[in-house]
UniProtKB/TrEMBL annotation:
Gene name of the record: atpF
Subunit architecture: F-type ATPases have 2 components, F(1) - the catalytic core - and F(0) - the membrane proton channel. F(1) has five subunits: alpha(3), beta(3), gamma(1), delta(1), epsilon(1). F(0) has four main subunits: a(1), b(2) and c(10-14). The alpha and beta chains form an alternating ring which encloses part of the gamma chain. F(1) is attached to F(0) by a central stalk formed by the gamma and epsilon chains, while a peripheral stalk is formed by the delta and b chains. F-type ATPases have 2 components, F(1) - the catalytic core - and F(0) - the membrane proton channel. F(1) has five subunits: alpha(3), beta(3), gamma(1), delta(1), epsilon(1). F(0) has three main subunits: a(1), b(2) and c(10-14). The alpha and beta chains form an alternating ring which encloses part of the gamma chain. F(1) is attached to F(0) by a central stalk formed by the gamma and epsilon chains, while a peripheral stalk is formed by the delta and b chains.
Presence of keyword Lyase: no
Protein name (record): ATP synthase subunit b
Transmembrane segments: 6-26
Organism: Herbaspirillum seropedicae (strain SmR1)
Record keywords, A-Z: ATP synthesis, Cell inner membrane, Cell membrane, CF(0), Coiled coil, Hydrogen ion transport, Hydrolase, Ion transport, Membrane, Transmembrane, Transmembrane helix, Transport
Length: 156
């Protein structure tokens, strides 16, 4: 066999194989590679969108946490103000109650003082009558001298 003919035959077979490969094998491979590249690009774009969404969600969460923290502080402040108002109201009520109790106690004390004075007046009048009996050495009739005894009580 001739080397040139073999070489030419190999060239012909090579070009036929290359043409067949370019016509029937290469397009599906290119298509598969393009689809794979598209999937990769879509995945990377989705990852970028996910990162952006994550960053936005983190910002939103930080904002909501700050808002919740501020609202909590505001509620604590309001609760403290309300507690102070309740304490002041309780103090005021306690002061009013104490004043009322003191007033009642003074009124009771005054009533007892008046009652004791009346009893003392009665006892002094009785002693005065007994003293007058002793001085006069005779019995004094309390019923007959009731006006005189009442006048004596009022003077005492």
């Amino acid at each position: 066999m001739n080397l040139n003919a073999t070489l030419i035959a190999q060239f012909v077979v090579f070009f036929i194989l290359a043409g067949f490969t370019m016509k029937f094998v290469w397009p599906p491979l290119i298509k598969a590679l393009d689809e794979r590249a598209k999937k990769i690009a879509d995945g990377l774009a989705a990852a970028d969108r996910g990162k952006a969404d994550l960053a936005a969600a983190e910002k939103r969460i930080q904002g909501e946490l700050a808002s919740a923290r501020d609202e909590g502080q505001k509620r604590i402040g309001e609760a403290e103000k309300r507690a102070q108002l309740i304490i002041e109201e309780a103090k005021k009520t306690a002061a009013e109650e104490a004043a009322r109790i003191v007033a009642n106690a003074r009124a009771d004390a005054q009533q007892q003082v008046n009652q004791a004075r009346e009893e003392l007046r009665g006892q002094v009048a009785t002693l005065a009558v007994k003293g007058a009996e002793q001085i006069l050495k005779r019995e004094v009739n309390a019923a007959a001298h009731a006006d005189l005894l009442n006048q004596l009580k009022t003077e005492l």
